[in-house]
Amino acid sequence: MPDYDAQPGRRPPPEPELSADQLRSDELDLKLGLDGLARIVPGACTVDDLLRQVAQFAVQAIPGVDAAGVTLAHPGGVVAGDSKPRIQTCSVTEEFVRAIDTLQYEEFNEGPCLTCMHTRRPAASGSLGGDRRWPHFGGRVARMGVRSVLALPLIVDEQVIGAINSYAHSRDAFTEHAVTLGVEFARPAAVSVYNAQLLNDAWQHTARLQAALSSRGVIDQAIGIIRSRSGGTEREAFDRLARISQNEHIKVSEVADRVVDEAVRRARARQQ
């Protein structure tokens, strides 16, 4: 029996007996979903595109899913015990899931995704309109014709980095069998999402370093130009740039760019 949080106070219908053919079909769908995950190459697409692919493979791998979304938590993951996980981004397979995400994260600040990231356990509901865990969210989503949900935390090295949220229009769409397959899918999915997040963060850090180095070079050039004109020290030249920056409310690097550009224009004018 999978370890998950079922809807409290509601007894779902008996678990259906699956035929051997149905079990083989479900196992094949899970395998195809996992194979799809394995073919994802971090860096070959944006993080949003990768999350969308993971969501699409979740629809294939987990029985009963009509649409799914993958939510990425703020860098650093979800701190254990944090009652309000911070959401960085999310991608969906259908637009109605995006509307559900808006209700969950922006309007009500309650719902299965937030719950599963907080508890670090899958959360399932077969009748969202009557689920007392999410009294505001559940009723609104049920009126949209969505009655079942299975939310799976994405965990890497004890760190919750996000969640897969699977929705269905029918009641009691996610049996314990579906939860078991969902958990099997979520483990490698978490690794794919985590690797993409790490690579994206590394690229952004590299871009910031390159920008900083470029700015430093321009500032050094501007300091040299000011010193050649004034005969002052390096500190005095930098203080002059800083004062202009403060007075005009622009970055020091932008002031330096102006100084260098002006010096280049004067040099060209003298050569004419």
Automatic annotation (TrEMBL):
Transmembrane segments: none
Pfam families reported for this sequence: ANTAR, GAF_2
Residue span of region Disordered: 1-21
Keyword field contains Transferase: yes
SUPFAM superfamilies xref list: CheY-like (SSF52172), GAF domain-like (SSF55781)
GO molecular function, one term: kinase activity
Matches recorded under InterPro entries: ANTAR, CheY-like_superfamily, GAF, GAF-like_dom_sf, GAF_ANTAR, WH-like_DNA-bd_sf
Keywords from the UniProt entry: Kinase, Transcription, Transcription regulation, Transferase
PROSITE patterns attached to this UniProt entry: ANTAR
Transferase in keyword set: yes
SMART domains attached to this UniProt entry: ANTAR
Residues in ANTAR domain copies: 199-260
Protein's name according to its UniProt entry: Transcription antitermination regulator
